[in-house]
From TrEMBL, chain A:
Belongs to the glycosyltransferase 2 family. It comes from Rubritalea profundi. InterPro entries: Glyco_trans_2-like, Nucleotide-diphossugar_trans. The keyword Secreted does not apply. Gene3D superfamilies: Spore Coat Polysaccharide Biosynthesis Protein SpsA, Chain A (3.90.550.10). The lineage of its organism: Bacteria, Pseudomonadati, Verrucomicrobiota, Verrucomicrobiia, Verrucomicrobiales. This is Glycosyltransferase 2-like domain-containing protein. One of its GO terms (molecular function) is glycosyltransferase activity.
UniProtKB/TrEMBL annotation, chain B:
It comes from Rubritalea profundi. Coiled coil: none annotated. One of its GO terms (molecular function) is oxidoreductase activity. SUPFAM superfamilies: ARM repeat (SSF48371). This is HEAT repeat domain-containing protein.
Amino acid sequence: MITILYICGFSIFVYFIALSMTSLLLVILGALQIHKYNKEITIAEFDHIAQSELSTPVSVIVPAFNEAAIIIGTVENLLKLNYPCHEVIVVDDGSTDETICVLHQRFKLQPLERHGATQIETRPIHAVYESPDYPNLVVISKENGQRADAINAAVNLSRYSLLCVIDADCVIETDGLQHMARPFLLNPSLAVSSGVVRPSNGLVVKNGTIVARGLPKSWLGLNQEVEYARSFQWARNGLNSLHSMLCISGALLLIKKEALEEVGGPWPKAITDDIEFTIRLHGYLFDRRNKRNLKIAFIPDAVCYTEVPEKISQYLPQRNRWQRGTLQAVFRNWRMIFNPRYGTTGLFGMPYFLLFEALAPLVEVAAYTLAVTFLVLGLTTFKEILILMFLAYSVNVFLTLMTIYITEKSNQRSTSWKDYWKEVIAIFTDALGWHQIRVFVSLLATFEYFILRRRDLGAPMERKPTPSASI
Amino acid sequence: MEILGPNFIPIVLNIALALSVLSLVLLLYITVEHWMIDRRQQHNSTFGKAIIPLIWRFLRGEATEETAIKAMQEDPTEALSLLIHLAHELESSSRPRLQPLFTGLIFIDEEIDALKSNQLKRRLLATERLGFLNNEASTAALLDALEDKIPAIRLCAARSLAIQGKTEAIKPILQALDLPNELDNRREAEAISDYGPSAVPTLLTMLESPIGKYSANAIIVAARVLGMLRTSEAVQPLIRLLKNPQESVRLCAARALGEIGDPAAISPVAALANDPAWRVRKKAMKAIGKLHADRQIPMLSNALSDSSWWVRFSAAQALHSLGQVGITELQKVMKNTSDEHAREICCEVLEEHMILDTKKN
């Protein structure tokens, strides 16, 4: 029995070392990618994209369900994007609140007859509207499906060959689309580009344009600020260079229409459709039998701001859903795990995602349980446990500081000293409570997924009018 | 008893301590850098607030060249980037008025040296800056930059030469760029189109030159630009290109003729309906649609039974673009034809344009 306990303990220690080393590798790869990117771009190039008639037109898709409080600010922001040719398609996915009414009121919507060439199966569409004041705005009112179903409905009616999917609670920098579209103009074999997502709480938006960036006021929001920075600034950058960015946030995604159609669009029954779609997309792009040689780009300076929960009652269900969605996406595409047919995606990306993302909470809770067991049985000393925890903490802080170092060189750096120090404090305190809360929520979600077979999306997050809507 | 054994504990502790020290050093470094970037941004903001109005005053003739250059010399790099940004915002006809300021700020030898740098960004910046120095040395340097191994530099050099308006650079640009893929081809065409109508005579000479004198890519881009500029003088040379042995040249000529919209091109373009390459037939159908050639309805109608889906689709779209007469033809074909493919494509296009709702029918 004691031998088994020792083997478990040692295995977890090996797991921790493997995770730390992989993370360090990803930091280095991510930093190199960002360095390479910064060396390539010039401001003049973006000016040119913004003015060029040849920049590929984009259909921006905004799925919205019960977003009355924020939808106007989001649409105004998207209509103001500095891009030569884009249309904004808002899909009201059968909202039970005033979403469609506020859109009618603000944009003076009129019914429009519009059919598209693409036919992905969706729930019935009630009506399509246009705005006389904004010719590039289209609003679709449809029966409630899920976010994925709403996206598919918009894909069917989209006009252009590039599709940009943005969440309804998101605000994007006015030059964001230029940055996202740039790699498509340079590289014909690119299928998808995605950008950075940061919390919008603390952002000040005036008439659809971001005028000031700040940090969320609550500690929970601040903690998520650090978490998002860590996740996007290096993890995704490094993972993408290994064809393993298996979670492209649904908050900001630019994809060729033909690629989306061939993959079959997001899966309407997915708990988190973006993760499931990303994994399937990787399967489609990197399956060696298809010889497509297509690519995915991660753009470190295309930033999209999304509202993050600042109340624990909203935060916990969100994390619960994310964990269940991750498990569902990984196990639905289990054939890709360790499958050499998918190249590094199969041999590294999928195992990494399974071991260090989907199953990480299980391992971490097992570590805590083992530590207590060892102490109770007198198999270890309190000092040894403390030293191991200190090591884990140091690694966490070091890796997160690396993220801040990368962020400082980007357009997302804190603009005030107060925010800078708040961020630093959040880095040092993240692993002292918040991280453990995330782990236990994820463990509960894992239990609900496997034992209770819970597959619902949970209640949608209650929105508060963002500064974009209120100012 | 211990999980890792007594020998490992000091090692783990030392690693953790080393990481902590490293973290503190990193934090210190980031903080210093944050402070420096802050200072730099504050300086740039103050400097910009002072310099931009001064440049406008200079453009209005209220400030002398010496005053402006003296003020800009305080931070020439930042001043230059502000000046370039402003130059891009100005009408191309107003740009030469900024020439004295550019001459005062850009040290041509430094920029020419930068063109030889190993750093891509340095080369890009130098290529961009040289475009604003309208003299022989900068033009020669930019012509050299057209030989750069990186396509982005070659394209930037082409744009800079277009800013200089040196029409003698058009042929070297087209020959040097020679970018095979479609996207680069479009960007190259756009760079040349920045010249505007002044590029037309050179491009026409290229189209009229004997086959083989210029590469196929150069001819394609020249045809494309002439189409973009809707040059009616190019119609006859483009019609001759429709018989070119290269598929991509015929295709590009058909597209350009469609964009120019001259009725003289209708019959020659319609003759491409029998071209062996489906991509050419497709482009010909599109061009016929753009040319609003009602008398080509029978040809378009025949093309609805083409072996390629794209040709059938483009023919159906072209018929639709002809208005009621084309729509009637589509409906007629849909009812009467025995060709399943033709019926399907008519149905699809009519449905797309809301003339037919198959779900109801």
